[in-house]
Amino acid sequence: MDMQTSLLDRLFDTGLLIDTGVEGLYGRSGAFEDVIARFERLIDAYGADDGAEAMRFPPGMNRAHFESSGYMKSFPQLAGTVHSFCGGELDHMSLLQCMEVGGDWTKDQKATEIVLTPAACYPLYPTIARRGRLPAKGGLYDLQSYCFRHEPSNDPARQQLFRMREYVCMGMQDHVTTFRQTWMDRGLEMMAKVGLDVTMDVANDPFFGRAGRMLANNQRDQNLKFELLIPVTSAAKPTACMSFNYHQDAFGAKWGLNLENGDVAHTACVGFGLERIALALFARHGLDIAAWPADVRKVLGYQD
């Protein structure tokens, strides 16, 4: 039995995660959710004085905005769409007959105007673009959303539906790169406070295909993406639990995000994988929260 399956089985046995019969799609217990809520309060404490505008989007986004984002050019293997039955009574009868014989009853469903949100920040850019030009100081936004990535796995840290907490900064290059470095420093400090061993490393997104390999190499060569890695199911291959991304002016140009003086805004974001961080805490300190080290419990606000 590999370490991924072993940890997943133990999480199921204790009820911290709930098996749905689909890899990467899990229910969560109250105790698991409480760990996430407490860690989010720690995030809030670090970001409270920055003055970010809080927004919460649903786990689905406007299909037209999704298409405009270019996501399908880079990550078609991860995308999820929402399809629905759009037929009449005869179509419904055919659908039920198909189900009766074990056929593919989904084949005649049609795409809706909703796709599953791939990253918490994707609905933000068109939202801010509709407001017009950004103020001279730029903008800072606090987001949290369920996200979908189609990558089924028995690794509990690689879920298909998961929550991402993000801060997104828009402004001049120096402003957004300073923001990113600040959160890289904060991320290391936060994880030390909750007793997690971490490393920071340059990274790339999982771009698709031959052209994607060139994009990935460029991303790494320019240090556009860093990840904070924490052992969850493997010490040799730690899991990315935070990411720190500098998009240059790519999103600014794509969405028409301009500063007060007309310059195209640069953007950067920091993302927290909330389920992954909770899993890292359970992997490091054990599945019994009451037995976690006193200093870690104190940081997370547990009363002993």
Q: Mind explaining what this structure looks like?
A:
It contains 11 helices and 12 strands. With 304 residues, the protein is an alpha+beta fold. It has 2 domains: 3-80 and 118-299, Bira Bifunctional Protein, Domain 2 (BirA Bifunctional Protein, domain 2, 2-Layer Sandwich), CATH 3.30.930; 82-116, no CATH class. α2 (30-47) packs across α10 (274-285). The two termini are 36 Å apart. The mean pLDDT is 95. InterPro entries: aa-tRNA-synth_II/BPL/LPL. This is Amino acid--[acyl-carrier-protein] ligase. Its EC number is 6.2.1.n2.
Please outline the helices and strands.
Blueprint: H1 3-14, E1 17-22, E2 25-28, H2 30-47, E3 53-55, E4 60-62, H3 63-69, H4 71-74, E5 81-84, H5 89-100, E6 110-116, H6 124-129, E7 139-148, E8 161-171, H7 173-193, E9 199-202, H8 209-221, E10 225-230, E11 239-246, H9 250-255, E12 266-273, H10 274-285, H11 294-299
Parallel strand pairs: 3-7
Antiparallel strand pairs: 1-2, 4-6, 5-6, 7-8, 8-12, 9-10, 10-11, 11-12
Radius of gyration: 21 Å
Give the low-confidence spans: none
The major pleated sheet works out as: 7 strands, mixed
CATH-assigned homologous superfamily of the largest domain: Bira Bifunctional Protein, Domain 2
Secondary-structure-based class equals alpha+beta
GO molecular function, one term: ligase activity
EC number: 6.2.1.n2
Protein name: Amino acid--[acyl-carrier-protein] ligase
Keywords: Ligase
Brief overview:
By secondary structure, this protein is α+β, with helices and mostly antiparallel strands. The chain contains 11 helices and 12 strands.
